[in-house]
Design brief:
It comes from Trichoplax adhaerens (Trichoplax reptans). By secondary structure, this protein is an alpha/beta fold. The chain has helices at about 1-20, 45-60, 70-85, 100-110, 140-160, 195-215, 240-245, 250-260, 265-270, 270-275, 305-315; strands spanning about 40, 60-65, 90-95, 120, 165-170, 220-230, 290, 295. α2 runs parallel beside α3 (about 70-85), α4 packs parallel to α5 and α6 (about 195-215) packs across α11 (about 305-315). The chain is globular. The structure holds NADP nicotinamide-adenine-dinucleotide phosphate. NADP nicotinamide-adenine-dinucleotide phosphate binds near residues 47 and 231.
Length: about 325
């Protein structure tokens, strides 16, 4: 009994020490400036996207925060301007769960912007607990995390090409390795829905998309890479209580513990920032990153046949001509 208690305490200390002193310490140290450059970040009103917006605004970029809620977006813009000391931060409305909204956003960008140097596909969600659909009838996670960004990137490609060298940064997740391949026979999770598995499919779709896009962008100076930001304490855990269905005091204790050991949003934004600005990555494309470094990913994620299949299906679903 005493032995196992000591073991548990030591294990808890090792886990705490690892997360506090090793895992959380990621910091991109490059001092690159982005004066005269334009960056779009989806889902920049909170979490990783907001922290990336602050950093890139500090570096002199014009930062376009693409958000779906006007009130949350406006509050975030105020904060981003104040914290970064830059006034060159604008809010534009984008709901990735609506193809109409994505098309309107792209139209507005072409009408207002001369250039686009970095597109950061960051917005995403894990949930809700019960299957839900977007305005176009897609399962919400595959719809927002993958299909909305698929259409957005395609529509903005001409501007990225006009502004090259330019970059596309895709915020995926390490959870894409949890599934053995895309669920092509049930892409909308109608037969089977579980939050974590459906999320993993949507994040695998992010990686397959970025590899396939990099092949299609060969010969241009537009690069695309995807990444895992780490496990980060953000509003991505907003469905946490609904999912666990535990008494509220346990939820509170768990949230407190998670906040103590997980990365904060600023730390979670470091690999995003690195992929957006690092000069040494100017011509690196078609890679998956963790901790600002290239990581080997799963066999499923590097399957070219599945990547092409997903591309063709996505094109049809969002009504893009081949
Ligand atoms: N946190 C982690 O541990 C972790 C780990 C691996 C990968 N990631 C990925 O990192 C990215 C950022 O997540 P986060 O942790 O910063 O989460 P977050 O704090 O919940 O931020 C997500 C952002 O996405 C936006 N969003 C959600 N649905 C949208 C829609 N339909 N249209 C436009 N924007 C929408 C949210 O806007 P609202 O506030 O209006 O909902 C919010 O701004 C996500 O792609 C996530 O999958 C996170």
């Amino acid at each position: 009994m005493i032995k196992s208690s000591i073991f548990m305490i030591v294990l808890a200390m090792i886990i705490y020490g690892y997360f506090t002193f090793i895992y959380g310490r990621l910091e991109y140290e490059g001092s690159e400036r982005l004066d005269g450059k334009t960056v779009i970040i989806t889902g920049a009103n909170t979490g990783i996207g907001k922290e990336a917006a602050i950093d890139l605004a500090r570096r002199g970029a014009r930062v376009i925060c693409a958000c779906r809620s006007k009130s949350r977006g406006e509050a975030a813009i105020e904060d981003i301007k104040k914290t970064s000391g830059s006034n060159n931060v604008v809010l534009m409305m984008l709901d990735l769960g609506s193809l109409k909204s994505v098309r309107q956003f792209a139209k507005d960008i072409y009408a207002k912007e001369e250039r686009l140097d970095v597109l950061i596909n960051n917005a995403g969600l894990v949930g809700p607990v019960y299957r839900d659909t977007t305005k176009d009838g897609f399962e919400r996670m595959i719809g927002v995390n993958h299909l909305g960004h698929f259409l957005l990137t395609d529509l903005l490609l001409d501007l990225l090409k006009k502004s090259q060298p330019s970059r596309i940064v895709v915020v995926s997740s390490g959870s894409h390795t949890m599934v053995p391949g895309m669920n092509f026979d049930d892409l909308m999770s109608e037969k089977s829905y579980s939050v974590l598995t459906t999320y993993a499919y949507s994040k695998l779709a992010n990686v397959l998309f970025s590899f396939e896009m990099s092949r299609r962008l060969k010969g241009t100076s537009v690069t695309i890479n995807s990444l895992h930001p780490g496990v980060v304490m953000t509003e991505v855990f907003r469905y946490f209580e609904d999912y666990l269905q535990l008494p509220s005091f346990i939820n509170k204790a768990l949230r407190w513990m998670l906040s103590a050991v997980l990365r904060d949003a600023r730390q979670g934004a470091q690999t995003v920032i690195c992929l957006a600005v690092d000069k040494s990555l100017q011509s690196v494309s078609g890679q998956f990153f963790e901790e600002c470094e290239i990581y080997e990913t799963s066999e499923a994620a590097t399957n070219e046949t599945e990547a092409k299949m997903l591309w063709d299906i996505s094109q049809k679903l969002v009504n893009l001509s081949p």
